[in-house]
Amino acid sequence: MALAIRDVREHDLDAVLALNNAAGRSILALDAAQLRYFYERAEYFRVAEIDGQLAGFLMALRDGGNYDSPNYRWFSDHYESFVYIDRIVIGNAFRRHGLGRILYCDVTSYAEVRVPLLTCEVFLEPRDDVVVLFHGTYGFQEVGQQRMGDSGPQVSLLAKDLPSYAYVRETWLENGGLPDEPWLAERELPVPATSLPTSQPRRLAGERRP
């Protein structure tokens, strides 16, 4: 089995959209315009590919954006610097093989050299104890709860401290920046050509399933 974790490419978007919308009620559905919004703006957007087949993906955004998700806004109101995991989706045929942990390790590697905190949320309605346990064993702690909108689900807002960041900041970020290494490179964002239609709800945040 050949596994590759790489930045999403434009030709992946149809497969990503299908994977997202087949994930069930624990993942909020997207349309093509909403997915392109992430493609054009998400600092971290990587796919897991097994033997050439798209098996899963993870999308995350940095602080300071204009993303109109109530959960992203909650973290923006409470923390100055963070990476926010919007959603992770693993295809049905590839679940229970550790891909969720692999993608979480990868996004942690991305985040810990840039910010002190990795954040996300999990749905409490319906509650999935496997998901809650996954995040607890990976070092996340609850820092708050809120309801998504007037009638949306209750969510647990989670954060994970990244202790490596202080060393990276003092050693590199405050002294010229990160080394010029491929694994440290930023994702090259395409020039934004779209925005979310005003008639569409902009609440895009999705709960994650390992």
Description:
It is a single chain. The protein is an alpha+beta fold. The two termini are 20 Å apart. The protein has helices at 13-21, 32-41, 70-78, 99-111, 129-137, 164-173, and strands spanning 3-7, 44-50, 53-62, 83-90, 117-123, 141-147, 154-161. Helix content is 29%, strand content 25%. It is built from 6 helices and 7 strands, in the order βααββαβαβαββα. The chain is globular. The protein has one domain: Aminopeptidase (3-Layer(aba) Sandwich), CATH 3.40.630. β2 (44-50) and β3 (53-62) form a beta hairpin. Strands 1-2-3-4-5-7-6 form a 7-stranded mixed beta sheet, with helices on both faces.
Q: How many discrete structural domains?
A: 1
| General shape | globular
Biggest sheet strand order reads: 1-2-3-4-5-7-6
Strand residue percentage: 15-25%
End-to-end C-alpha gap: 20 Å
Reported by name, the CATH topology is Aminopeptidase
CATH class: Alpha Beta
Average pLDDT works out at 89
Q: Helix fraction?
A: 25-40%
What is the total tally of β strands? 7
Give short descriptive properties of this protein.
210 residues; alpha+beta; Aminopeptidase; 7-stranded mixed beta sheet; 6 helices
Give me the secondary-structure topology.
Blueprint: E1 3-7, H1 13-21, H2 32-41, E2 44-50, E3 53-62, H3 70-78, E4 83-90, H4 99-111, E5 117-123, H5 129-137, E6 141-147, E7 154-161, H6 164-173
Parallel strand pairs: 4-5
Antiparallel strand pairs: 1-2, 2-3, 3-4, 5-7, 6-7
